[in-house]
Amino acid sequence: MGAYCNDNLHPSSMHAFVSSEDLRLSKHVHDNVHGNIYLDPLCLKFIDTQEFQRLRDLKQLGLAHLIYPGAVHSRFEHSLGVYWLASEAVQKLKNYQGSELGIDHFDIQTVKLAGLLHDVGHGPFSHLFEREFLPRVLADHWSHEEMSVKLVDCIVDEHHIEIDPEMIKKVKEMILASSNNSLPKGSREKRFLYDIVANGRNGIDVDKFDYIIRDCRACGLGCNFHFQRLMETMRVLGDEICYRAKEYLTVHKLFATRADLHRTVYTHSKVKAIELMVTDALLKANDYLEISSYTQDPSEYWKLDDTILKTIETAPNQELKESRDLILRIRSRNLYQFCNEYAVPKDRLENFKDVTPQDIICSQKNGGVILKEEDVAVSNVRIDLTRGRHNPLERIKFFKDYESDDKFPIPDDRVSHLLPTSYQDMIVRVYSKKPELVGAISEAFENFQLQTYGIKAQVHATPEKKKQRRL
């Protein structure tokens, strides 16, 4: 990311909706995905706070950089990217349908702020902190969206930011729009605005636009999804953002590219091995460092970021020895050993229950090494197109052309016979925490598959070389 600048640039280098007068007063950063991102004065008041600057110390992809060295981009630049795309999206709707939709400056500023602040409450290590660590140490449900909302209030109060209370209220509603929380009745006016940043209605939003392009680029992967086509052709019909029917394959590429990233990067077998180790390290350190207590107070939460690993690694305290040893194992590449995996058969997905280490050790045959629950780690990986086992296109509305006001979904049989007939994968992976137990755990895992499905569902046997490995 570039430093803040306010150089005099020619207005033609800026998008048409920003006047030359605004441009001279704007600061900007140069982003490696979107080019120059121009920052308005109100958003700068939020950016220039310790709570927002914390996002610089949160890697967007958590621990994936230990496998993909280029994946070191942060939630700070992602948040600026979502801010920029949110401002472009709402401005395009205003340009095309402004008088019809009644979009005003208040709406534009609200959407931009929601894009900027949507991840301000995110935890360390991508989603590991929220999905793997906290459920094992907290009795109550916790989400980064809810913490983002609390931090927005904290920033406003702590830094005395003058802002319309109604705007802040709507910003927080937009941040929560993708969660299970239903929107308040008062939010039904201009409901389409809530689809821009975090779309709980059908999953198409600028948050995905930014992280898909940014993550692909950082990991050196190709990406043939072009969000610009959707931004240019979107249209509001019946208070809902709809897309031109000819772009249905572009929409499908959005969800397919996201699924590819999950399979290739986010849930890479070694990424998951490292995540399992970091989760164990955090659990062992929690009693001493009280890591989970930071989630209870927004004024303290901003102090928690990815550097917690370095804190543990360099601490001399005996109470942190087990955690420290796990982190040192990661540094020396002595990881939990991947034993094998299988994809849950399609006809078993509906009633699938997560596999546990207990399931594996109970499947071992008599004789040989006696496995313990703490010897085994299991990762249950769900990969889908955002709607579980359902086709995401079912919830998306399309229109034929700009002369028509009719909106409609596109059924499966009208799309393409080359597209998938199943929209979810469930992959069960098993790891050995000790290299010398790979053989015993692999055998128990095969027995578990035979007992559960009557077949070995894994594609191939665990390599003998891996089974024979010793410390």
From TrEMBL:
SMART domains: HDc. Gene3D superfamilies: 3.30.70.2760, Hypothetical protein af1432. It comes from the Eukaryota. Signal peptide: none annotated. Residues 75-212 form the HD domain. Pfam families: HD, HD_assoc_2. This is HD domain-containing protein. It comes from Juglans regia (English walnut).
